[in-house]
Amino acid sequence: MCYSYSMDKNILAELRKKKWYLHSPPAVKNELKDLPLEFHGFLADLAKRKSFIGRVEILRLLKILRGNYLIIPVFEVRSLDTNEVFTYEFVSWKFGRFPGYKGIILVEVKGRIKYFIVKYGAKFPIGADCYDSIGTFYSPDNLKKTITVPNKIKNHLRKFLGLPQVHFKKFIDLGILNPDPGMSNNHIDLFAVVIDDDNAQKIDELLAHNPQKSLVLGYELEIVPVTQLHDFIKRCNDGFFLACIARLFSQKVLEISG
């Protein structure tokens, strides 16, 4: 459900410093002011946007296209090299450039990582089943909280796994990923958590009797041996998972031999 609200005064003050905002049509300014609360993150990012990006000057915001989760601002811009005027746009999540976090769960046995846990199920945008890393979106009440507060992520994972008492031995901050900087301003926080074999056994038993299902689209969890990682990488197209694996290798958390 969307709730309307008055634009934050600080955001409005910052926007009014931008020439491109002042030159934008009144209808577009009003549309920005009337955006639902969930789009606060997008507005905060917009207020920080520079007027010059590379060799392009932003002249004004022509229109915005909005869905339930995404928003596309369409700008009129000018090339500093040719003086040509044209339009440019990008895709943003309504929560802004930090919409959430994605990662994987690692299982440790006798001091070594032996398994990893991933999700498999339907993804609406591609219209097919696929492997997916584990994570969620930030909500409007915690937009300013990032991966530096891992407890919120751990609480989400406990709920996600259906095991409120699961113990996480280690939380690994894997940094930020820009999935498609040519199209979107999206930044995702990457992470990995380590659990022990006892907790993995609880998850395995849970999956055998009650496979996890999301509220909207069905999915299942899979516990995969690290020895199968190389073959798994060949058939997994999820960029977040692959980025997590690459950074885990770079930090020497995972061994190539498995």
Report on the architecture of this protein.
The protein has 258 residues and is of the alpha+beta class. Helices cover 28% and strands 33% of the residues. The protein is built from eight helices and twelve strands. It has helices spanning 9-15, 19-22, 26-33, 40-47, 150-161, 197-209, 229-235, 239-250; strands at 52-53, 56-66, 70-79, 85-89, 92-93, 100-109, 112-123, 128-132, 134-137, 170-177, 188-196, 219-225. Strands 6, 7, 8, 9, 10, 11 and 12 form a seven-stranded mixed beta sheet that branches.
Question: What is the fold's blueprint, element by element?
Answer:
Elements lengths: L8 H7 L3 H4 L3 H8 L6 H8 L4 E2 L2 E11 L3 E10 L5 E5 L2 E2 L6 E10 L2 E12 L4 E5 L1 E4 L12 H12 L8 E8 L10 E9 H13 L9 E7 L3 H7 L3 H12 L8
Parallel strand pairs: 6-11
Antiparallel strand pairs: 1-2, 2-3, 3-4, 3-5, 6-7, 6-9, 7-8, 7-12, 10-11
